[in-house]
Amino acid sequence: MDASATQGRLHYMDHLRALSMLAGVFFHAALAYSPLMHGLWPLADRQSSAGVDAAVWGLHLVRMPLFFLVAGFFSAWIASRRGGVALARQRVRRILLPFLVAWPLVWWSLSASTDWALANVQHPSPLLDMVRTWLAQPEAPQMPPGTAHLWFLVYLLIFAVLHWVAHTLELARLGRWLLDRHPACLLLVLPVLIAPALATVSAPHPAPEGLLPQFWALVFYGAFFALGTQVHARPDWLERARPLAPWLLAGGALLYLVLLWRLRIELPGAAMPVASWPVAVLEALLSVWLTVFCLLAGQRLLDRPNVAMRYLAHGAYWIYLLHLPLLFAIQYALMDLEWAWPLKFAMASAGTLAVCLLSYQLLVRHTPLRRFVG
User: Fold this and answer.
1) With bands split at pLDDT 50, 70 and 90, how would you rate the model's confidence at 270?
2) Which one, of 291, 344, 317, 327, lies nearest residue 60 by Cα?
3) Where residue 3 falls among pLDDT bands split at 50, 70, 90?
4) String of b and e for 110-145 (b: at least 16 CB within 10 Å)?
5) Which of 158, 198, 352 has the alpha carbon at shortest distance from 278?
6) Contact predicate 309/83, CB 8 Å
7) Residue pair 325/110 in contact by the 8 Å Cβ criterion
8) pLDDT class of 241 with cuts at 50, 70, 90
9) CA–CA separation, 306 and 310 (whole Å)
10) pLDDT tens by residue, 148-177
11) Which residues on neighbouring strands pair with residue 8, listed in sequence order?
């Protein structure tokens, strides 16, 4: 994705994309200490903190919607300035090829670290202990493969095709109509459109890691990708929406407290396989309002050159591809230690980022790989 524009580089879009991807490192590291995910996450530690849940689920509702919004913006930018053929070539080089190379390596590394943990960890997570018991059974079936954290590449390819279809058939009229209205119109209509999708999965919504695309994820993340393409077509919309920023933040904070309360009642699991309608509506409102607020805040605070942020923006793609296998290996090794959970979290996050940045500097930044994952 090119982050240039007619009048110069869109620094805030570059920086927001980088921050949304880097946030994934801290989000995945924090899940080990989330009470809500204790029975569902293979890296769940014996220690947990309600403060982790209070922080991570807001991040969960924003980081990937913001990423897809920015991705939609840049897809529309490339298509409008270089044409559909150039966009298709760029998607193949930057998304399809990295996915085909990284997917088997990621799956193998995650499986290898989990096999090590099954054989060596003395204080396993509930999920790891369940897998250990399951595999001890005679003729236990193998775990089906999934896309792990690389699922976003699959959806980026799908959305690129859908964007081309919508552009070719001129199907973006509803989006243009919404953005031409008062900004509050979109901020109320978009949650209504995505809430039914969120009501078909558990809350907090899971990662769509299956090999086949999931309808709820196509609707949910596709709505933000489409919003990004429309923001590109209506660049004045952000300025018109700016007066609503304080209301988005205040309303988001209030609704987030309500969501945290509801999640304490509706624990994910067999008893609650899908979110209730109140929770789905809360998730929809929060994801839209807080994502748009982050976009407005980023335009105000991040739209300037910054050497450190530019370096992170260049390396963020590589870091995201590499981080989960490293995080699994580190956090499995930390499970049996009696250290306080904040220290474990800091070591896992810092260690993962250090290896990712060092490998980016040595293997990507000054090599031909930068054209694909730099």
Assistant:
1) low
2) 291
3) very low
4) beebbeebbeebeebbebbeebeeeeeeeeeeeeee
5) 198
6) no
7) yes
8) very high
9) 6
10) 999 999 999 999 999 888 877 777 777 888
11) 5
Q: Whole-structure pTM over 0.90, yes or no?
A: yes
Which amino acid, one-letter code, is at 211?
A: L
Quick one: pLDDT at residue 271? 65
* Encoded amino acid at 82, one letter: R
Q: Which long-range contacts (CB under 8 A, 24 or more apart) does 44-53 make?
A: 44/125, 44/126, 44/127, 44/128, 45/125, 45/331, 45/334, 45/335, 45/341, 45/344, 46/123, 46/335, 47/340, 47/341, 47/344, 48/341, 49/341, 53/260, 53/263
